[in-house]
Amino acid sequence: MTAQTEPAATHTVEGAAEASAVHAGEHVETTGAEHSAGLPQFQFQHWAGQIGYLLILFVILYILMSKVFAPRVRRVFDERETTIRDALTSAREVQAQAERQAEGAKRALAEARSAAQKTAADAAAKSSAEAATRRAALDSELAEKQAAAETQIRTARNTAMQQLTTVATDAAEAMIEKVTGVKAPRDAIAAAVTSQGQ
After folding, report:
1. pLDDT in tens, 112-164
2. All structural domains of the chain with their residue ranges
3. Which of 75, 103, 138, 188 registers the highest number of CB atoms within 10 A of its CB?
């Protein structure tokens, strides 16, 4: 009985080994077939699931872009545009204000120049009038002094001529008396000297 049991057990073990070998061979064949088919992404039986996942991801990304990222980007662009517009507006206002100030400065400069020219002209006219008045006063004073000097000169000359006439009369009288021995009338001698002096 023991001898019968041993061959049966041996047969069972051999059968299990053969089944395992067959299963291993199938597994090797299946693995080889899978490896020989390439990447699963390129196999047609997997495309439906991949397209579904892509659609889901696309919808999620679209929702994120349209509801989250796009409004933020749009808000940033709007703020940037508003900032640029405000900066340009303030720059134009500053430029216009600077132009107005420049025009005001030009007008003030022109008015100051005109006022300075008028003041200079008035001062020149006033100084020329004062100079003319002073010149007239000096001319009048010089004329008076010249007339006084001429009067003094004339008086001095007349005095000198009278003294000279007197001296000449005395000398003539003395000479006539010495030469002739007769005293000549003084009036006749003075008349003769005066007629000679003229």
Report:
1. 999 999 999 988 888 888 888 888 988 888 899 999 989 999 888 888 878 88
2. 50-197
3. 188
